[in-house]
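--- STAGE predict ---
source: upstream dedup step, 1 unique chain passed
mode: sequence only
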Amino acid sequence: MKKSLLFGLCFSLLSPLFFPASVFACGGLFCDTGPLMVNQAAERIVFAKHGDGYVTAVVQVLYEGESSEFGWIIPVPGVPEVGVSSNLAFTRLQTATNPTFVMNTIVEGSCKEERNNGSFNNGTSANNATANSADPVVAAEGNVGPYDFVVIEVPNPQPDGAMRAVEWLENNGYMAPEGSEVLFQSYLDEGMNLLAFKLTKNADAGDIRPIIMKYQSDKPMIPIKLTGVAANDDMGVLVWVLGNSQAITSNYKSLELNDSLFDWFFLSNYNALVIRAANESGGQGFVTEMSEKTTSLKDVVFSDAEVRSWEEIMNRNYTQGKDLLTDISIFLESLVQNNCFGESCISGVDGLGIALENAFPQASRTEREELTQCLYCTSIVLAPQNFDRVKNAFKDWVVDPLVETQKLLDAEKHFTRFYTTMSAADMTIDPIFEFTTSLEDVSNQHVAERVIHCNKDTYFFDAAWTTTLPSGLTVKGTDNFWPIDVNDPEIAANIVIRDISPSSNSIVENNRLSIIAALESRNRKVSGRKTYDEGRDPDVFGGKEGEKGRSDGVSGGGCSTQGRSTFFFPLFALAFFVSIRRKKKNLV
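--- STAGE serialize ---
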């Protein structure tokens, strides 16, 4: 059986609070930085299983280091078609499908009126080989975007086949990590080839962008074993699988998170919860975060409005070069407007560098750097006969990768988003994705219902509350702090762990009763308090002499009247701001 694959990469982790930014669900991206290799920080992949027996895989590659030290090797079935995709495509897709958490709050009764508290808002989202030869053969080679690539075939692999392949790659400028031959050999023995990438001579690390590949395969698969060569502990793996129906990880466990361990107030521990849940499954389980029809992904990566805007530029008969460059600049800024925090928005456009090289082949490096700051401010004279060259350069390297990724999403009926974390020791089995029609869709929206129990003897922030979670679990507490720690050893991180295949769905571990018992024991100890605990700073937590509270601007939930407020936050927002305002002794 032919396997499908995923890819790996070398990446500098920007923030442990966010999903790591990416790689092909396996393969090895390696960095030669001396005695210690730079580890992969995360993998982010899109798989599409087509009805014609082919799989398309898109992997985002993040890398920090010298361009001469970049190397990426992926086991592949056959000889794939290779192209480049867009980092912006991953950013938009992830934003659209991130889990969101909503807490609806009802205030029952009236709290003690000496304090006027505002609500605290919660939540956040080639050549043929001879039959007997054990020598590596170049099955395909070429250049795409910033990469040179080669597909190495070992038609009759012997025990030293991988060693020979690695020697060939290193002799031709492709990097491989020391000691990786054993892992490569296991894929060669299964009839797979090795696809290797390096940056072209004039490319640098800033030119790196996602790869899109199409290859013949029965199922999408992540060659995670190879990723273990350079993996950080608890590395995040985020995967979207497209097909005719819901996808499952048939040889990994399916995890149902215990949402009572999630901090519904500050939303800061989702990744820690997934780490615990994955560890409980032996490091080989995925959370299904979302699964539904791909109609919900329409316009997510590249909208119809953006298609029309670009077509207008392509079809307009310009007479002045400045007008053309101004329109292109406005269009590029619109692509990144939600992720633009500097003076020059277009400098962050994926593919801008290579587009400028093709649009202005005679420009110096300094002139191109100036163009990235202000496209239409250039002193370069753009002759009318070169207008089409400029248009096509941006079409090929900026627009088309977005268009093709959106087409990939639209072409299939259903998508499933998976997330997990893994350490190198867990990467002993390559995750395989199959499809089933027996499961219900999974929403990425999670809604909890909280009731605050006010009475005339209790301040609002001291009042007891009861929260019913999406899982049906109940948590009681006081104050605006979640009472359960995500690493509480007495409470399991998974409600249920399952083995799911296309034809079966069996429970491996069911912790619901023990979780309910632990929560009930804690809930019985909760009651409203009349005053704040001794030792807490009144300037932070409130008090008669220095009342201060927290609000992010969402109204609702007053303490003297009964009301209802909805708190909504995307889980993976780039920043979470809490504004604190004080007016004399009263909180506003």
